[in-house]
Recover the amino acids of this structure.
């Protein structure tokens, strides 16, 4: 009979096998790369693109391209009727309109919660009395340091939508169960939206301490 792996608690009712953290490499588990040099290739209004000369924990030296990002928030706004307020938004990079949760980038000096409040109102025209942090995720850690804070927003009230000039958004409401079915069918492809809706379902079924 196979022996069960020991579990390492991350937070209440979120457990993963401790074996996941084991490494066969000679370097200690928590040793990080040494940065020898950084070259900034591009700096935009939101993020920058850099190439770092690094020495890895295994002693190998290499160059590593990275997108530096200030961080973002994603919001799952739960209306009084149980539906989720969603955005149907044009995304030029993929040439499609995508069904997404409201989300956006932290401004300089802005807290994740303040960003979530601002983005919810700007994109949907709703404000919320309650924000519950249900996840913090690195959405593409292979080449970006962006961390996204995911909130469940409740007790919604109508306000005014304030879209940026480059935002083309239509606000739509869907039952959460229908959204999860759309994910299953492959109709929702935005990774943050897929993650956030599933995390919201987990939280609503069994609330855990946030933060």
């Amino acid at each position: 009979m196979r022996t069960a792996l020991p579990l390492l608690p991350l937070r209440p009712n979120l457990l993963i096998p401790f074996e996941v953290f084991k490494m066969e490499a000679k370097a200690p588990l928590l040793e990080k790369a040494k940065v020898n040099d950084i070259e900034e290739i591009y700096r935009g209004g939101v993020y920058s693109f850099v190439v770092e000369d690094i020495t890895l924990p295994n002693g190998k030296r290499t160059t590593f391209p990275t997108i530096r990002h200030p961080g973002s928030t994603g919001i799952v706004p739960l209306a009084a009727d149980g539906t989720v307020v969603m955005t149907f938004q044009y995304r030029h990079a993929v040439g499609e309109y995508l069904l997404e949760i409201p989300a956006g980038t932290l401004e300089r000096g802005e807290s994740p919660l303040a960003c979530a409040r601002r983005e919810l109102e700007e994109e949907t025209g709703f404000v919320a009395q309650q924000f519950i942090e249900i996840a913090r995720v690195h959405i593409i850690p292979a080449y970006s340091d962006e961390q996204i804070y995911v909130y469940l927003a409740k007790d919604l009230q109508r306000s005014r939508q304030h879209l940026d000039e480059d935002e083309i958004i239509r606000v739509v409401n869907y039952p959460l169960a229908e959204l999860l079915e759309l994910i299953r069918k492959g109709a929702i492809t935005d990774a943050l939206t897929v993650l956030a809706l599933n995390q919201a379902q987990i939280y609503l079924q069994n609330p855990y301490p946030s933060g």
